[in-house]
From TrEMBL:
Organism of provenance: Meiothermus ruber (strain ATCC 35948 / DSM 1279 / VKM B-1258 / 21) (Thermus ruber)
Entry keyword annotation includes Transport: no
Keywords: Signal
Name this protein carries in UniProt: DUF5666 domain-containing protein
Signal sequence segment: 1-18
Keyword Signal applies: yes
Length: 329
């Protein structure tokens, strides 16, 4: 009997060891027309996610105090320190580069003593709204930050930034790279690397890779910079390429632009642009009279200015401007 209890105890221990530990994921959420765009940090808390809450100010510098490293916008006084970042035309500069009369945009927060501390100073910039919330996510391999666009599409990358400007707009940026947490400054030092395959987008059976993703919640479009690589699984797998692509959250359609090339089941099709309806398993390829869509296999070719492409098989139907040439059997 004692052995039975020992075996039962070992079994309970084994079951307990198999029980997964609870996972706590840091997220940021945006909503557009009833659909949620959710950014999730999936990896460990090193580096941690960083959330910044900032008030936005703008105006002309009326006074500068080089000793205290403070600047005045009218009656408001803003302090700066080693954490403050100064920018001019997207390039980092120093406090010494500030001049009275310059237009500036400030990201600041009120401190416990009531003073205003500037964390970000952009020379020549103007505030987009009253305040913003910025969330920074970074995941080391093999983990990746994930963006879900409603229930239709997902994107993955090493680094993501979410900026929500109150009463104005929301933005999401994603690319490759690494991040290092600087604990005494409570910030992430990012090394962005927007190279090929830095970002992956998944929709249905289709996967696409690009160098960076920029989502604008006002337009509902996620723009992916190239070079674009495409793959679609199935009985007749598809491989392709393009210069750039755009995913629209509202209509759940993927658009490709520039030097499109699709290879499937011995057929190669080229076009200037394309509209991909993944749910319907079709795409429309577009060209011009000067550069028509062209689809070719060992039996010959067809071309036109608008072509229906079947994603499962690679079969094509020329809808406008049909021309063709085939080998006789």
């Amino acid at each position: 009997m004692r052995w039975a209890w020992l075996l039962l105890g070992l079994l309970l221990v084994a079951i307990a060891q198999q029980e997964p530990e609870p996972s706590f994921q840091t997220t940021a959420e945006i909503e557009r027309r009833g659909k949620k765009i959710v950014v999730v940090k999936s990896g460990p808390d090193n580096p941690p996610a960083i959330i910044e809450l900032r008030d936005l100010y703008g105006g002309v510098i009326t006074a500068l105090d080089a000793e205290k490293k403070s600047l005045h916008l009218g009656e408001r006084v803003f302090t700066t320190d080693k954490l403050t970042r100064f920018w001019l035309e997207g390039k980092p500069v120093q406090f010494a580069d500030l001049k009275i009369g310059q237009q500036v945009r400030l990201e600041a927060a009120e401190q416990n003593d009531g003073s205003l501390k500037a964390f970000d100073v952009q020379i020549g910039g103007k505030p987009e709204g009253p305040s913003l919330s910025r969330s920074l996510f970074a995941d080391p391999p093999p983990y990746r930050v994930q963006i879900t666009f409603g229930e239709d599409a997902k994107a993955f990358g090493a680094i993501a930034r979410v900026e929500q400007i109150r009463e104005v707009n929301d933005f999401v940026f994603m690319t490759g790279g690494t991040a290092r947490y600087i604990e005494d400054e409570d910030r992430l030092e990012l090394d962005l690397k927007p190279g090929p395959r830095a970002v992956e987008v998944q929709q249905g059976q289709s996967r696409a890779w690009g160098s960076r993703l920029d989502y604008d919640n006002q337009s509902g479009e996620a723009r992916v910079a190239g070079p674009i690589e495409l793959e679609r699984s199935g009985d007749k797998p598809l491989q392709g390429s393009a210069q750039r692509m755009v995913y629209n959250v509202d209509d759940e359609i993927l658009r490709l632009f520039g030097e499109i090339r699709l290879v499937q089941d011995g057929r190669t099709s080229t076009a200037e642009s394309a509209v991909v309806h993944e749910k319907d398993r079709i795409a429309y390829l577009y060209g011009s009279k000067e550069r028509p869509v062209r689809s070719q296999n060992k039996d010959g070719f067809v071309q036109g200015t608008r072509v229906l492409y079947h994603l499962d098989t690679g079969d094509v139907v020329v809808l406008e401007g049909v021309q063709g040439e085939f080998q006789e059997p």
